[in-house]
Amino acid sequence: MLSGAQIVLWCLEAEGVDLVFGYPGGAIMPLYDALDSSGVRHILTRHEQGAVFSAEGYARVTGKVGVAIATSGPGATNLVTGIADAKMDSVPLVCITGQVRSPLIGSDAFQETDVFGMTLSLTKWSRMVRTLDEIQAVIAEGFHWARSGRPGPVVIDIPTDILKAKKKFSGPVEFRPHATPWNAKADGGFTDTIVAMLQQAKRPVALVGAGAKLSGAIPHLRQLLDELNIPTFATLHGLGAVPPASPYYLGMVGMHGTRAANMALHDTDLLLVFGARLDDRVTGEPTRFAPHAKIVHFEIDPGQLDRVRPCDLPVIGNLAETIPTFQRELQRPSLPQWNEWRAVACARERTQDDPRGLAQPTIRFLDELFKRLPQNSVVIADVGQHQMWAAQRCRSSSPRGFITSGGLGAMGFALPAAVGAQLAQPESCVLCLSGDGGFQMNIQELATVHRLGLPIKMVIIDNKHLGMVRQWQQLFYQRNYAETDLSDNPDFVEIAKAYKIHAWRLNEAAMLEQPVAAETGEAIDSFLRSPQAELLVFDCHPEANVYPMVPAGAALSEMMFADE
Amino acid sequence: MQTFQIRYRNTQGTLMRILNAAVRRGIELQSVQAGIADQDHRVTLLLQVTQKQARQLYREWYSVADVTDVGYGAVQHGHGDDGNVWSSVHPPAPEALTELSAYTSLTPR
């Protein structure tokens, strides 16, 4: 006889789960009581949001399903931001929440919330378990939906009496999905159409998003792009899909994208999109997005098509199937060379970084940091100015080497996500970049870092402001700096010391001389190679801004640059 | 007004996900009729939507785990079985290039 809690843990192991993140409480106590007898390792975070972001960090670097556990009521509500984040960024995530006893459901019992209803629009799939006999099937189906198709979050809510009840256990079950009403069959029927469009195109480009990475299509995509040899750029989540050294690669596109990428996207007459949602941060003003282009959209989720602008040719299906099919059939016809167009799109005056931006001490600091990173490092950025600077300067060629909360833009993501990433890749250097605002949103996870002895390298870009909001206030709200001043920040070095984590401070003056002083470089090197957790606080000028920038309502070609 | 018919397996929350796809866009639910249809369930919705919203809804409904079929037609009265319900198994083609065989890659199971 096994309890419902023991069956849950059995089923998790059957799904390949060896690590979960969570925080105990009343309704979920039976599950915690059973942990000792299972092979599942539980990581205690110091807040449920820390647990769900850690599970996301684990999932994002491994591609496996991340699991977060919380109790009912406030435990469940504290998961919600992470669930929304996983939905926006297509992260496979299963959240297991305790619920009040079945007879009390709907009575507004102590710590009762309708987590099922509350997360309906944020989850890909969810269930409240109603009987002990359902547990196996629900967990099997939940994991199927979390990892299948476009990955996403799943919530499984289990009343505490069901976790306690016992039954004879027959072993985990396998979920057999129903047939879907449509199915992408990569028979190549679409390739003739794309080839015809390519043959007519004068200025084709390729845009790569996260879907290319999630589908495992990267090797085929890289071969395809090498064959096409057309100007190519990536979304924030597409970074690392294309080796930055590729001669046709123009960097990140969008609101803070490169001049070359944004101009090429504005000028193109044929846009090939590989696994990107084309959200507003990528398109700029939708009515002026790629105004001359026909759009071919490779996408696994039909729900993502036409959100901002209708595409001309949707290719719906798993990119791991559709891209190889396209690549295979592409070899037959001869395509134009597009030499003239490539020369324009990749011209030095477009690809050259703005020297005013490069002179910024924070940019110099990030360049120093990134060039000294060991191989196979994982960079995790929080949300704000530092996130965009990092996206612009980090030149990782690893598909899972740059991680951030892109769609939701959830401040406080980086530190707990770094916990999950470091546990997933104990041998890698995990670099956690935060602003001073975001770091304080989950600062309690320093305790988790210390308890687990994780050698995470944490950097706070401290401008003593909510920098990105301040930048918008400066540029678009007549410098009315309403409630963005954080000049009374605590001393982060002292806080880290209280958590028994070594910390030090680097002033931006150290970056004014180029090249940087040898001792500064050595300090950064030893920071990155330290066997223990380290916190580095970099003092950043409060009025440093992120450029280029496409203002809200502008076309991608209407970028702002420093001092304009 | 547009009539939409969505067939679905009546699992927890599926009808709510279908309705929420409209509600989250600020679209009022003019009429909702849900019930058993053959071995599945079917909900018929009467909505005031733009073409763009119709396309988005159509595709978002297809992304819901237990939705099995979606159809729509520009029916303003007696919304339901006698309408000009689109029976294609594919998401609607965009207007710009309907002549292109964009869906040749898609085959129903």
Q: Could you tell me the radius of gyration of chain B in angstroms? A: 14 Å
Instruction: Write down the overall geometry of chain B.
Output: globular
CATH class of chain B: Alpha Beta
CATH superfamily of chain B: ACT domain
Structural class of chain A: alpha/beta
Tally of DSSP β-strands of chain B: 4
Query: In order across it, which strands form the biggest sheet of chain A?
Result: 3-2-4-5-7-6
Average pLDDT figure of chain B: 74
Helix content of chain A: 25-40%
Low-confidence stretches of chain B at least 5 residues in length (pLDDT < 50)? 75-109
* N to C succession of SSEs of chain B: EHEEHE
Which residue ranges of chain A are poorly predicted, with pLDDT under 50 across at least 5 consecutive positions? 181-186
What's the architecture of chain B in CATH terms?
Answer: 2-Layer Sandwich
Give a structural overview:
The complex is a heterodimer of chains A (564) and B (109). With 564 residues, chain A is of the alpha/beta class. Chain A has 25 helices and 20 strands. Chain A has a six-stranded parallel sheet with strand order 3-2-4-5-7-6, sandwiched between helices. Chain B has one domain: ACT domain (Alpha-Beta Plaits), CATH 3.30.70. In chain B, 21% of the residues lie in helices and 28% in strands. Chain B is built from two helices and four strands; from the N terminus they run βαββαβ. Chain B has helices at residues 14-23, 51-63; strands spanning 2-8, 29-37, 40-47, 67-73. The radius of gyration of chain B is 14 Å and the shape is globular. Residues 75-109 of chain B have low confidence and may be disordered. Chain A binds chain B through residues 116-117, 120-121, 124-128, 145, 150, 178-190, 193, 294, 301-307, 310-317, 322, and chain B through 9, 12-13, 16-17, 20, 24, 52, 55-56, 59-60, 62-63, 65-70, 89-91, 94-97, 100-109.
